[in-house]
Amino acid sequence: MKIYTKKGDQGMTQLIGKNVKKTHARVEAYGTVDELNSFVGLTSVLLQEEKHEDLVMDLTKIQHELFDLGGDLANVTDKHKWTLSNKAVEFLEAKIDHYWDEAPPIRTFILPGGGKASANLHVCRTVARRAERLVVNIQEASDELPPAAIKYLNRLSDYFFAAARAVNARNGTEDVLYERGKDVFK
Fold first, then answer.
1. With b meaning 16 or more CB within 10 Å and e meaning fewer, what string describes 171-184?
2. Which domain range does residue 27 map to?
3. Which range is the signal sequence, renumbered to this chain (predicted)?
């Protein structure tokens, strides 16, 4: 089997049930989810090197959920077969609370950074936010989405923020506070 099909040579691709341009909103959204999945994979490797096995297990689960979400975003015909559910959102909420409690309290914004794994978690956070915006655009165009899609991406970016702070705390690395910030976390 060859990996190339030549079907996309004219700028078209196949959603599940529909042929569309590669610039279609759903293609942009699932492409960004795929990009996020790649950054999550890189971050998982860095967390493994730093011996944060619990986070590595989380990220493996998240990678599967992102793959599910990408498939759901590509599915425009059989919406009863969407895979992502609110259970994934509930998992993230529990993990956010857990990791948030590991890090010291903050009152101001922080700059992305710290160690390599923490900095990469912040990259994941920003790509998740972009994916969320793209999915919201699909919803605003009155196109049906998996009910959990936006909520999942919203919680996922919060998860990455909490996890990045927890990794810094575990590694004894202080978060870098935004110097001109005012108290926003109370």
1. beeebeeeeeeeee
2. 12-176
3. none
What CA–CA distance (Å, rounded) separates 74 from 17?
Answer: 9
Supply the pLDDT for residue 19.
81
Please state, in angstroms and rounded to a whole number, the distance separating the CA atoms of residues 30 and 124: 15
For residue 84, which phi and psi values (nearest 5 degrees)?
Answer: -65, 135
b/e sequence 8-41, b meaning 16+ C-beta within 10 Å? eeeeebebeeeebeeebbbbbbbbbbeebbebbe
Q: Among 58-62, 95-99, 102-106, whose mean pLDDT is lowest? A: 102-106
Whose tokens are 């590595």? That residue is: 56
CA nearest neighbour of 127 among 95, 85, 159: 159
Tokens of 113: 């950074």
| Entry field: residues in the chain | 186
Would you say residue 7 lies in a domain?
A: no
| Strands, E assignment, 16-167 | 18-21, 110-111
CA–CA dist 32, 26 (Å, integer): 10
Inside any domain, residue 70 = yes
DSSP helix/strand/coil, 19: strand
Tokens of 135: 């999915």
**Residue 6 in tokens:** 């030549």
